[in-house]
Amino acid sequence: MRVLHGRGGRALSGAASAADLSVELAALFARDLARWRQEIEAFPDTPALWRTAPGVANAAGTLALHLDGNLREYVGRRLGGLPYGRDRGLEFSARGVDQAEIVRRLEALCGLIPRIVAGLTPAQLDATYPEPYDGALLSTRQFVLHLYGHAGYHLGQVNSLRRLVTAVRPAASRPRRR
């Protein structure tokens, strides 16, 4: 049996851990989607959002569009039953989408993804995710954890890319004066 540590350091196991896991994952998605919004807003303007650095294939705008498509497809449509038609190719080929539009999409995800994840029951988390990933069947729990990690990976890329193309850090990451 796997044991997870939840709020207050108490050990979680069985059905209670699955219910707590949904709520805790939802809180993590909410936190990191807010961080995504902050990162995108930290770019000085739309053109900066679409710049890359040498050796970097995807602009921050591209990664934000990819996150939007990825979470709307795999959480919104597959788990939440919401209508969505993903165009993954467009996520990577679109250029120049306005910064305000990307922020609007991220804000919409903040209201959508955590709500769906928090509502997953222990039985839903234990069930096989509706689509194989990389040729393997995963539980919904495993796949939602994968999606959270995927979002965090790209968030780190956006943070690094912003620093490279703008040499500006948001106020939240500046050292505090003593």
Structure notes:
The chain is mostly helical and 178 residues long. The chain has one domain: Four Helix Bundle (Hemerythrin (Met), subunit A). It has seven helices and two strands, in the order ββααααααα. Strands 1-2 form a two-stranded antiparallel sheet. The longest helix has 29 residues, at 14-42. Residues 1-13 have low confidence and may be disordered.
- The CATH architecture would be Up-down Bundle
- Spatial strand sequence of the major β-sheet: 1-2
Helix-strand category = mainly alpha
Helix content percent band: 55-70%
CA(first)-CA(last) distance = 47 Å
CATH superfamily: dinb family like domain
Number of helices: 7
Strand content: under 5%
Rounded mean pLDDT score = 88
General shape = globular
Q: Over all CA atoms, what is the radius of gyration?
A: 18 Å
Total domain modules: 1
Secondary-structure map with pairings?
Layout (H helix, E strand, L loop, with lengths): L3 E2 L5 E2 L1 H29 L3 H4 L10 H18 L10 H6 L5 H20 L3 H5 L13 H27 L12
Antiparallel strand pairs: 1-2
List keywords for this structure.
Four Helix Bundle (Hemerythrin (Met), subunit A), 2% strand, 178 residues, mainly alpha, 7 helices, globular
Short note summarizing the structure:
Helices cover 61% and strands 2% of the residues. It has 178 residues and is an all-alpha fold.
